[in-house]
Fold these 2 entries.
Entry 1:
Amino acid sequence: MADSVLKGWIGLRTRARGFGLPFFASPLIPAALLGALGGDEWIVLGSGLGFGLTVLAARVLRRGQKGDTDIAAGLMAAATGSAAWLAAGMGVVFPFVLAAGAFFGTRMSFQALPETAPPPPPAPPIPPGPIELALGRVARLEDAAVRLNEPRVLGVAQAMRGVLDDLSERPERLPQARRFLSVHLDGLERITERLEGGAAPPERLPVLLEDLSRTAGELRERLRREETQALDIQVKVMSDRLREEGY
Amino acid sequence: MTPRNDRSDPPPPPPALYTPLVWAGGGLLLTVTVWFTGMVALFRGFGSLFY
């Protein structure tokens, strides 16, 4: 019986946790107003600090996570100490005594109230995959081609983007295009860097760029053909099975 | 037989029956310290109007 009454009481206090703290510090509000009217800025400062830190302690208590009672007790100690020192003019030693009293008073007032575990830290962002990295590099190549006014480089970059778009839809085909990504993309990046550095395009460059564009197109075609073949096999297997089962 | 679950934390002990007395003591301590400080500051603020 006594246990269930205590449990109910704890539930009630847990729901209202922290709301009462500003009440204890409420005389500091008229003290600040009177201090302002009387032109004593120390009273205003001490009262403001005291009441502000008390409201902060109440906020921390409302959160109700593990360790929050100790943080709130520390904030209440700071609030009481600063108000006693600045606003109440109690010298240097006495504010520490009052701060210690406020610390232990807060801890005792919220003893046995349940505290939840703090939320887990957010999961680290997933690192971008090879296709996303390659798409970023192609975007930089396209920008560089626009800056250089090189429509042929832009054409190759767009052809590569087409390959990467296909791979994004079918990432299981990535191993077949890994060589293309490493060799062709690296090569085109180096060429673009040289062109941006002011190099004059050699005579063979248009042929090479055309080859790169063509290779990208062929790779897309090959990937599509393999996909079609895989579908053909799937259809054949399904038809055979239906026939075997007599449908 | 109830299966054992060794991985879960043991349940916290039930609160002591004298817990409300501790709360009352904490409230008293807060009154004596925070409320008292506020009242002294209030009197000083009132006094600042005249001095």
Entry 2:
Amino acid sequence: MIQRIRTIALHTFKESVREKVLYNLIVFALLLIGSAVLFASISLGIKRIMLINLGLSSIAVFGLLMAIFIGIGLVSKEIDRRTIHNILSKPVRRFEFIIGKYLGLLLTLVVNTAIMTGGFYLALYYVERHMGGEDVLLLEAVYFILLQFAIVVGLALLFSCISSPILSAFFTFCLYIVGNFLGDIRWFGRESGSVIFEKVAALLYYLLPNFSDFQVISQAAHGKGVPSYLMTSGSLYALLYVTILISASILIFEEREF
Amino acid sequence: MLAVETINLTKDYRVGFWRTRPRRALERLSLEVEIGEVFGLLGPNGAGKSTTLKILLGLVFPTAGSARLFGRDPRDISAHQSVGYLPENPSFYDHLTAKEFMTYAASLFGLSDKARTRQIGLLLEQVGLSDSGKFPLRKFSKGMIQRLGIAQALINDPDLIFLDEPMSGLDPVGRREVRNLILQLKENGKTIFFSTHILSDAETLCDRVAILDHGRLQGCGELREILQVGLSSTEIVLEKPSRDAVVALEPFASSVVRTGNRVRLELRAESDLTEVLAQIVRWNAKLISLNPVRMSLEDYFMERVGGNDNSSLRNTAAAGTESPKSE
């Protein structure tokens, strides 16, 4: 089982890294990180904050685009091209296929994030001419970005099992946006005075992926490390949510006919 | 133990906007395929051939009835360990080379590095792609993709091979090569289950055939039984017969066809043969050939499904060529 999941994951990784769109996104991300140096150099006194904010945001945005654009085709492309017939006629369980696909794209994102983070640290070194312990703490923010990617890939995978790539991209993107404002939505619900609105807001808060708690870029830019309880709860939340998303994808995929 | 068994296999697809309307693709199909047999599944477009194959491979689930591969349920993946499958109009990964794709297929069967390398080299050689192993698949022609599809179906040295329209997209040389490959696999004791539109291929390769039409089994049997159901008629060819000779023979013939100097007569009954030969001697006609006409697979096919209003089928059967698209 592990061997088959690994084979599918490595194949998905190979497929993803041969996508031209991936390289375009990486180049854009590195250009943006590079241009952050320019913005930082004209920002008196807030060079570092400016660079970290722009650099980490670039990693987050371009990684998100990669997760969505590659993730939405993970399963639907295999179905459309009928390559799924080849895979499932071999001794491959359907859940192995789904898990392999998920891990393959996650691996792609981890490698790309590592490349972009390398670019970001180069830019930081260029501006500051030294590296310190506080710079290493920025990796905590990168880790939180990766946790978001893990959830986004799970969402894209789930939608890829049930709808077309365009709809999958739309739904995934919408959920990401809504997920970033869930804290505010819940606050509005409480403040509205309406019991129904409060309950609906609470339901959305618990049901939809909550990305608002993963936003630590600004905190990192101001040299504040991520508290350990937040590291633990964030990791557990992502793990739980991804498990739910993958389980739902498997349940749907098990009943699909090709 | 049987290689393939289906018992009252029935499949309804849900169609319409709300997917509430059922469309029956297969109706109580019961088949048995022995180990070592070459079994052909024939039928016009939409007959249910691909649906049958997909159910047997666990890609589609039956609405009723059951299917077995070596006694196991197709959804049990251990049943797939000794199975190879060539889908109809196969499509593979454009970003891979032929060797990479074969490696991927071999890895899914858990083949060791050594076995994988040996098997890939052997199979690519066998299907004539050994020089194209390093080319990306997006540069492959349809025929090359079909050959690669056959190679990947054999990567695990399967005991049971499903081939969905294996000759599709191949040129005459390729078709002959694939035909020889199938015969070679049969010699090696493999069971081959294939669907085809090309009756001549089925006639050359199959031990038994089943004919499907509108999801229903129209007939199933050993090819030699089907083709030796009896002499359907006797054909006589004469060269430059006199007008009187033809007039004398006409009452015995169901058809008389003139081609150049020759006249071809198909006799109504075998019992008339002695009298016909006497007439030929009497009128001093030159006898070129006298052949018993046996039922061909095409005749059998047309007899079973020809009554249905299906012009594409007639064209297919008459031409002995494939239709553009199956079901």
